[in-house]
Amino acid sequence: MEEIRRLEIPETNDVIVGELAERGDWVLANVDTNGSWPVATQKVSYRREIVWILPVMKKCFPAVAMKVPSGKDRVKCELFLMRFLSNLAWVKRQGFLVAGFGGGNVPRPMGRDKTFGYSICEEFNLSYFPEPESDSALLALALLREGRGLNHPGYAFLSCYRVLEVALRDGKERGEWISKKLDMITDHRALEAINKLKAQGVENIGEHLRDSGRHAIAHAKEKPIIDPDDPSDARRLRSELPIMDALAELAIEDILGVETSHTVWRKHLYELKGFKDILGPDIVDHLARGEQITEQHMIDIPNINVQLRRHGPYPSLSNLQVKEIGQNGSNFFMVFQLDDEALQIQFKLDFAEERLVFDLINDLSIEDDGTSESAEAIAEVKRFEKEYFGNGELHIYNAETGELISRKDAYIPLNMYVDHKAADKEIAYWKQTAKNRQEKDRR
């Protein structure tokens, strides 16, 4: 299992360093969230711009920030950050509100007197981060972010219902869609609320959500009306809110085409997507059907870097060049190596199952040629092995462009575990061996 890290909330002065301390025209959105937020700074490329996720700090709001690009004004950048935040909220299934905008010559977050009570994580996993283009999808994501962030059950309910209005403009069509989709809801809180309504004799749940929820919150000229002084109204809306949340999520995915993280994980298309782009549609079509690729097909496979998420690069697994390729039906094999051929690593692209197959024990090998460079390379391979066994998430990058080609979910060892002390001892042995060989060569 992965070693447990103790997470510490940083001071503001420890965050505004490096690139974040560079003078410029900065704009930031101070974030108020009811979910978890990282304690580490993250630099994210989003729509060809750089956005910074500033961590939870001891006396300041967490935030998202960017430098104002040439030719853009601050208002457009504020909208850009809000779109980023709505996208982030969708991926993390959380609610984010903005307590205010700020900025200056460096990104200065708003102060807050709150040292405890945070829900924290080390960082956000943004391996999946969609960029929807349609105005309807962007608006729906914004409404759901707001609904999930609000503490008021009535306004949260209304925000979620507005998502359905964005996705389904026609009221009759919307009602029919709700009736069909209630059976597709899997969230246990939403199911409890649905069963409770049925037990109360509510026959048309869609009409109930519209009349006793959406209309009763938005209007006050005719009954039913939500009375802010009546606790029973708030309790009822809070109990039915999970239904609206689940329906809003379904509408964004099914109608507006923005997949949830769970759907992306279930399809796991990210394992082969980058390699499909490299191989091209003609070769991929042959492999998907299990047909032999002819010699007429030229394949130009770039050098790769093999890494693990949240771990530093491995020099001995960087800039690897392809040595050989092979095919067995719908399986495509690639063997990569270092320049000296001492290290070899193999990957199998299984097009029938849409899987990248890598066996740490059998698909990675390195030989010791007696040099200090070889010992250092072996130490790095041993570090990779230790960290991969510790629930590492395999990432393969284009060595020239830095583009992510493929990724796998966390590795879960079966009937085995890593002895961290023994692994560290072996890494230290090879590092010392490299040092001893260097000293011997200098004599």
Q: Using DSSP, what is the number of strands?
A: 15
Strand content: 15-25%
Kindly report how far apart the N and C termini lie: 43 Å
The chain-level structural class is alpha+beta
Q: Can you describe this structure?
A:
With 443 residues, the chain is of the alpha+beta class. The protein has three domains: 12-121, no CATH class; 135-264, no CATH class; 268-442, no CATH class. The chain is 40% helix and 18% strand. It has 13 helices and 15 strands. It has helices at 12-15, 74-92, 135-149, 153-167, 171-181, 188-199, 205-218, 231-254, 261-267, 273-279, 281-289, 372-389, 420-442; strands at 26-33, 37-38, 42-46, 49-54, 63-67, 96-104, 120-121, 304-308, 321-328, 331-337, 343-350, 355-357, 364-366, 394-398, 404-407. The strands form four sheets. A five-stranded antiparallel β-sheet has the order 3-4-5-1-6. Strands 9, 10, 11, 12 and 13 form a five-stranded antiparallel β-sheet that branches. Strand 4 and strand 5 (63-67) form a beta hairpin. The longest helix is centred in the middle third of the chain and has 24 residues, at 231-254. It is globular and about 90 Å long.
List the helices and strands and how they pair.
Layout: H1 12-15, E1 26-33, E2 37-38, E3 42-46, E4 49-54, E5 63-67, H2 74-92, E6 96-104, E7 120-121, H3 135-149, H4 153-167, H5 171-181, H6 188-199, H7 205-218, H8 231-254, H9 261-267, H10 273-279, H11 281-289, E8 304-308, E9 321-328, E10 331-337, E11 343-350, E12 355-357, E13 364-366, H12 372-389, E14 394-398, E15 404-407, H13 420-442
Parallel strand pairs: 2-7
Antiparallel strand pairs: 1-5, 1-6, 3-4, 4-5, 8-14, 9-10, 10-11, 11-12, 11-13, 14-15
Helix pairs in contact: 2-3, 3-4, 3-8, 4-7, 4-8, 6-8, 12-13
